[in-house]
Amino acid sequence: MIPTITAFESSPDRGQGLARDMRVRWALEEAGQPCDVRLVSFKAMKEPAHRALHPFGQIPTYEEGELVLFESGAIVFHIAQHHAGLLPQDANARARAIMWMFAALNTVEPPILELQTAKFTEGDKPWTGERLPLIKDRIRHRLGELAVRLGEADWLDGAFSAGDLMMVHTLQRLRPSGLLDEYPSLAAYVARGEARPAYKRAFAAQLAVFTGKPPAG
Amino acid sequence: MIPTITAFESSPDRGQGLARDMRVRWALEEAGQPCDVRLVSFKAMKEPAHRALHPFGQIPTYEEGELVLFESGAIVFHIAQHHAGLLPQDANARARAIMWMFAALNTVEPPILELQTAKFTEGDKPWTGERLPLIKDRIRHRLGELAVRLGEADWLDGAFSAGDLMMVHTLQRLRPSGLLDEYPSLAAYVARGEARPAYKRAFAAQLAVFTGKPPAG
């Protein structure tokens, strides 16, 4: 059964791949699984039909028969559990890969979300100029710790996993701020993720929504 | 094999149960599993020995033989996977329970963390008084959506699950702000969680660390 996911009809990042549907698209490409994509407008996302799928009125959602999921972390985990390529077989390594999914979403992403909120929701407030350096320092604190743990490894724990997928996509959101480039090993880590063929296919598919042109190839 | 978890030697919430070890303690009690608790000081949390377990220098951690985990979400998930009582057997219901774990940690908790950061990290800044209502409105937005989805149900999706455990604990952090009481159905949901015998045992165990007295009973 081919699942259906939802994505922005009009991507606020203009096809940079920063919306959370990219995580699901990438996971499906790593797993070699096709999907149908239904595009939703900002208006439709907040209406009852979409909220029946996603109580917080966001994208992505995932529909597969009677199963309806929201939350990119949960969707990627579901895909990873049912297809090879995203979670190791060894039980302990698998638990650690799942741990990195949670770490990306609950330890690394919150200060990054705070930076986005400051820019987009409080961008017109008189305090934002003074606050941004404080938020950036909180992000640097986490990035420094992450860089120490990554060390010279290619991925966070052995082979590429769903944990890396979530972490790479979380870190990508920092690129416009310049913060990622302050940590060359993390910038290289993100670049390794972006170099994966599955990533490239997923990126092209989400970009095509914005450009209106089908992906090349 | 009895796992070892870590918790604050000196709890910043003075035993209110808001630290993240409470999630792990509660999950272990729901699963009927004992654990050893190693207390760590704020200083020791940032030293290499603890960072080898937790790269972000926090609690809780979970050690079970050769497996070392951090991130409360990952630890609770690991416990839930290996013991009955926290995840349904039906595959779709199980995927949805895991979805609610991610929703608690990545959709509901981030604005709550922002409120804590504003109070404790930026509490002395001139803008914080004006910012707090903005942050509270962002939290209200999420709480309103969550209350609609919960409706008149006892738990988020059928029987109590690890998803409820994470959501209840996430919402508890709002109690000092008074925001939770603005949503009576969510306050009642949290109270249902707190009424569970497993919760009470876990709460007493973490309180005993603060009071220095062993839990009664």
UniProtKB/TrEMBL annotation, chains A, B:
Ranges for domain GST C-terminal: 90-215
Transmembrane segments: none
Pfam families, per database record: GST_N
Domain GST N-terminal: 8-87
InterPro entries from the UniProt entry: Glutathione-S-Trfase_C-like (IPR010987), Glutathione-S-Trfase_C_sf (IPR036282), Glutathione_S-Trfase (IPR040079), Glutathione_S-Trfase_N (IPR004045), Thioredoxin-like_sf (IPR036249)
PROSITE patterns according to UniProt: GST_CTER, GST_NTER
Gene3D superfamilies membership: 1.20.1050.10, Glutaredoxin (3.40.30.10)
Superkingdom to which the source organism belongs: Bacteria
Record CDD domains: GST_C_8 (cd03207), GST_N_GTT1_like (cd03046)
Record PANTHER family: GLUTATHIONE S-TRANSFERASE GSTA, GLUTATHIONE S-TRANSFERASE-RELATED
Protein name per the record: Glutathione S-transferase family protein
Organism per entry: Rhodanobacter humi
Lineage: Bacteria, Pseudomonadati, Pseudomonadota, Gammaproteobacteria, Lysobacterales
